[in-house]
Amino acid sequence: MIQETLTDKPETDKQPERLKSLDALRGFDMFWIMGGENIFILLGSITGLPALQWWAGQMSHVEWHGFHTYDMIFPLFLFIAGVSFPFSAAKRMQGENGRMSLYRHIFKRGILLVLIGIIYNNGISFDFENMRYASVLGRIGLAWMFAALIFMNTK
């Protein structure tokens, strides 16, 4: 009797199943964000294989015009953040204060990402002439916040 109570979990504690394809795509994107391109650049230079050298070339930014595979890493991350929002929103809506709690979370997260981006780009030094406001984190924060607000108000 006691053993059954300790090992059996109630149905409410069950974690919902994750969308594995979205997790796999997120992992793929994070691999490139964390520097996965360096592996292919190194392999291309060591082996001299044309396919690896071509892929290594795809893993660099084009200066002002043109398009490489590398240029899709950031948009893919934004896409993943947008696609995953409805899943997390559904969980938050079930809690206490559902909708208001979700709005607070949206604004808090958006503003926090913008502030972290400013701090990362030398915002603490208060050198306003050389400070970069438009950071990648700031763009993610604003894009996610506005997309979440649109989602919340057009359902």
UniProtKB/TrEMBL annotation:
Tagged with keyword Transferase: no
* Name of a matching Pfam family: HGSNAT_cat
For whether the record's keyword set contains Transmembrane, the answer is yes
Q: What is this protein called?
A: Heparan-alpha-glucosaminide N-acetyltransferase catalytic domain-containing protein
Keyword list (alphabetical) reads:
Membrane, Transmembrane, Transmembrane helix
Instruction: Locate the transmembrane regions by residue number.
Output: 30-52, 72-90, 102-121, 133-152
Ranges of residues in domain Heparan-alpha-glucosaminide N-acetyltransferase catalytic: 18-121
